[in-house]
Amino acid sequence: MRDLLGEAVEAVESGGPLRIAGRELPRDELLARASAVAAEIGGAGAVAVHATASVETVVAVVGGIMAGVPVVPLPPDSGPDERAHILTDSGAALLLAPADADAGDDGPPRVLVDELPQSGGADPAEPGPDATALILYTSGTTGAPKGVMISRAAIAAGLDSLAEAWEWTPDDVLVHGLPLFHVHGLVLGVLGPLRVGSRLVHTGRPKPEAYAEAAGKDGGSLFFGVPTVWSRLAADPASAEAMRAARLLVSGSAPLPVPAFERLEALTGHRPVERYGMTETLITLSARAGGERRPGYVGLPLPGVETRLVAENGDPVPADGETPGELLVRARHPFKGYLNRPEATAKSFTPDGWFRTGDIATIGPDGWHRIVGRASTDLIKSGGYRIGAGEVENALLAHPAVKEAAVAGTPHDDLGEQVTAYVVADGVTEGQLIDFVAGRLSVHKRPRVVHLVGALPRNAMGKIVKTRLTELAP
Fold it and tell me: At residue 428, what are phi and psi to the nearest 5 degrees?
């Protein structure tokens, strides 16, 4: 375990307790309970974890890492089809869960984490750095979720790079309330503080008042959130004021709208650090704690990471800060591939070894990256123009009446695609919003159609599900 979680976990006296949804977990207890899990699951090909925001989830994941058994986090709210697919595709031999969890009646044999006797036996043999630590399933927006195999070495290298970029030390207290089945909440939010040796306060849910309480009562210094979390905090001035005591606010998993960035700065005194990553690559780009932070940008490559942009035909795209292209990434420790899908793995890399992210970005002459959106949904080709949905969304969000906005391309007989906006707003008309955008951006980027809606479809991480936007149109 030392190669991944570091000496700070084994030297339990060097780190404070973890608190998960109000329950304290001293590090010596974590290691004792995780050792019991490791003894129970040793030799399994893979194990699934019913990944609630709980002490038992942390114990189960650490136990899997100690045993050298790949861990498959299972979203607790997954539907029956998704759940069956993940359990079957991963080949999980066991399902680890708390005794009181509603983890379903199907699937592999269950191990009740909180009923295992604590073990004092010898630690299992240390697996190699290339061994698979986690199998994380993608969101499945373009088909059945794919299992992403991530090695111990990739996780360790990624966390060390972030510790350097964010000046993350054992003196920090990390606070977040994110789900424990994704890279953001689990890898960064649990394995990160274990590797660094810092304390962790998981608030159960990422509510503004919970973050504010942790900033004061617990001395929270480093806070993780997705744009939805930060937007809600910015709408709660009292909670936002309490965040002035923090050291660093980090936003990820989706672009942080520029207006939300600016409101956060005004209320908390912090310019958030934005970063970019994927399940396959972990985090590859970030602003630095000690450097500049630009609204709408995700910073520079982390150590050991290279990036470039290409057009649809594979030609290079200039780093002029204006021309969008697909973002390609190359890192020292790439992901190991998609489980049971060699063809999908091969298609995700260029012949010379660059990973195709499927995201559209611009890179400035100074190396700063801006994510435009997904190639499949956020690059709109209208009348010969290439338009990034994110730029139009930020323009809409700058209107004081707009609460949420999502932009996509929809079919148009003459233009090929038209810019169509789905907006949550009060006291404003479709025509006023179209004119507002046309006054801020090039006229060809204005929405041709605006649908005023009550809410936007989102997934568990707060990302807007653009494939469902057309369901909102009358």
Answer: -145, 150
Q: How far, in Å, CA of 276 to CA of 264, rounded?
A: 19
- Domain residues for the domain of 67 are 2-205
CA atoms 387, 370, 202, 101: torsion sign = positive
Report pLDDT digits (tens) over 222-239. 999 988 899 899 999 999
CATH code for position 393: 3.30.300.30
Number of domains in the chain: 3
Q: What is the mean pLDDT of residues 298-307?
A: 96
Q: 349 exposed, middle or buried (CB, 10 Å; 0-12, 13-18, 19+)?
A: middle
Selection from 293, 357, 351 nearest residue 324 by Cα: 357
What whole-number distance in Å separates Cα of residue 414 and Cα of residue 236? Answer: 45
Model confidence pLDDT, tens digit, residues 387-406: 878 878 888 998 999 999 99
Residue type, 88: T
Q: Which residue has the higher pLDDT, 394 or 463?
A: 394
Mean pLDDT of 236-249: 96
Burial string for 303-331 (b: 16+ CB within 10 Å, else e) reads: eebebbbbeeeeeebebeeeebbbbbbbb
In the block, residue with structure tokens 């005004």: 266
Q: Predicted confidence band at 443 (pLDDT cuts at 50, 70, 90)?
A: confident
Q: What is the DSSP letter of 262?
A: H
Contact (Cβ atoms closer than 8 angstroms) between residue 10 and residue 32: no
Weakest-pLDDT range from 179-183, 262-266, 293-297, 442-446: 442-446
pLDDT over threshold 50, residue 9: no
Question: Are residues 283 and 323 located together in one domain of the fold?
Answer: yes
Residues 346 and 451 in one domain: no
Pick the more confident residue, 366 or 124: 366
Both structure tokens of 291: 């450097």
User: Is the torsion defined by CA of 229, 232, 236, 240 positive or negative?
Assistant: positive
**Which pLDDT belongs to residue 119?**
63
Rounded Cα–Cα distance for residues 186 and 170 (Å) = 18
Q: Between β-strands 385-388 and 379-382, what pairing exists: parallel, antiparallel or unpaired?
A: antiparallel
Considering the domain architecture, whether residues 384 and 345 belong to the same structural domain is answered as no
Pair (52, 124) in one structural domain: yes
Are residues 446 and 399 in contact, defined by beta-carbon separation less than 8 angstroms?
no
- Name the percent of the chain in helix, strand, coil, to the closest 5: 35, 25, 40
